[in-house]
Amino acid sequence: MISLKSEQAPESVWQNPWHFIACGFGAGFFPYAPGTVGTLAAIPLIALLAKTSLMMYVIICALLFAAGIWLCGKVNRDFKTEDHRAAVFDEFATFPVALIGIPLHWYWMLIAFVLFRFFDIIKPGPIGWVDRHVHGGLGVMSDDLLAALATLIVLHVIVGLFGQGWIHVN
């Protein structure tokens, strides 16, 4: 049985709705790879966003990012840490950016997921610089946004090269 460790899920998440939201509506409580679970938790949101116009999708992503700056800053101050493991709203809110303009299909989502987690964990180039030098809620959200944008660029290249080839998009 999986148990929730106190460093994973501060007790306040059960009393404070901001803490619960910041912990990815519970996704951050998972004791192993909470960022990965937080990313997976965004899939239903992506499915809903895919049913909107491209403009609405982008607006909602921008609003989630802006809200995340405030939320992650507040919650990490409350938790007295720079970027608490259980606070996975940054992954939840930025992963949808990786799929802007991409056809909704499981294989594109899988490729996006793998690329996003790669960029978010490895933090190459500017992603790592932002992670080390930008602090507070903006820093917590920005490295994930850059990981999502890197994923978006790579994914658009893949879709452009192979979207109608080895993988047929309807």
Task: Chart the SSEs and their pairings.
Elements: H1 17-22, H2 34-41, H3 43-49, H4 54-79, H5 89-94, H6 106-122, H7 126-133, H8 136-162
Helix pairs in contact: 4-8, 6-8, 7-8
What does this structure look like?
It is a single chain. The chain is mainly alpha-helical and 170 residues long. It has one domain (13-161). The chain has eight helices and no strands. It starts with 16 loop residues before the first helix and ends in an 8-residue tail after the last helix. Mean pLDDT is 89; it is low at 1-6 and 165-170.
Give the gist of this structure:
The chain is mainly α and 170 residues long. It is built from eight helices and no strands. Helix 4 runs antiparallel to helix 8 and helix 6 crosses helix 8.
Number of helices: 8
What is the share of helical residues?
55-70%
What structural category do the secondary elements indicate?
A: mainly alpha
Strand content: under 5%
Oligomer: single chain
Q: Which residues sit in consecutive blocks of at least 5 with pLDDT less than 50?
A: 1-6, 165-170
How many angstroms does the end-to-end distance come to? Answer: 42 Å
Q: Can you give the mean pLDDT?
A: 89
Shape: globular
- The overall strand count is 0
Sequence of secondary-structure elements: HHHHHHHH
Rg of Cα set: 16 Å
